[in-house]
Amino acid sequence: METVSCNIPVDMEFPVPSRVSRKINPENTVVNVSGVKVGGPEVIIIAGPCAVESEEQVFETGRAVKISGAKILRGGAFKPRSSPYSFQGLGEEGLKLLSEIRKETGLPVVTEVMDTRQMEMISGYADMIQIGSRNMHNYPLLKEAGMCGKPVLLKRGMMATIEEFLLAAEYILHHGNNQVVLCERGIRTFETSTRNTLDLSAVPMLKHLSHLPVIVDPSHGTGVRWMVPAMAKAAIAAGADGLIMEVHYNPEKALCDGQQSLSLDEFAGLMTDLDKIALAIGR
Ligand code: PEP
Ligand code: MN
Known about the structure:
two-stranded antiparallel sheet; disordered N terminus; binds phosphoenolpyruvate
């Protein structure tokens, strides 16, 4: 076996848990989100506000991202905020608004679950359940996600290795649900100029090790609005099956993550560029 100077085998691989492993299941898994197929030939764009704030905000934003070509609408009703004094989300009221905009636009919705006690209620509204970065290590929640009957968007823990990320996905599969999309959203490093360090090398690595679809979140991955288009394009070029991005009809007024949210016009422009990248790589 070829080795590098420090004697680490170049093609060394750690053991990958069985249910998520591509060695065990070589075919790509396609995750069906109410008819939208993630992990197939088409690159799928998920877009919408960080948090559902009001009827006007979610309708204006949802209609616009649909026209620009988004296939799934995102929006948090229960928000994991660092400060207990920050906007925590509209709760069930936010879920009702998401169902209304889904009815109008036909876009399936993905929203975050933070607590096992809310899984049943949120699954009743959402087309896809999001497990956020802070909860990737929440094993009771991962087990519930395995039993919830909805596809799951699993975000990488901000301090999780690839192995830990895949083991978290394994929990969901082990508990009966193989409809899992992996999402690279940046990890914490010594770098402070960006909110996180977006680990795009995770995309080919995860695709190599696992059959699950992989998407990228360049919004949380950078935390900087003007960097989002560059990293979105790079993620598609690196082989991601899709993107999840924060878009707001008035980012300056956003109650959550406005600094990394694209305006409606910026999103529309980026979608045109992404089409060209997808075409260039045969998708
Ligand atoms: C989000 O997508 O709304 C979110 C909170 O992201 P993360 O869990 O990646 O921080
Ligand atoms: Mn956010």
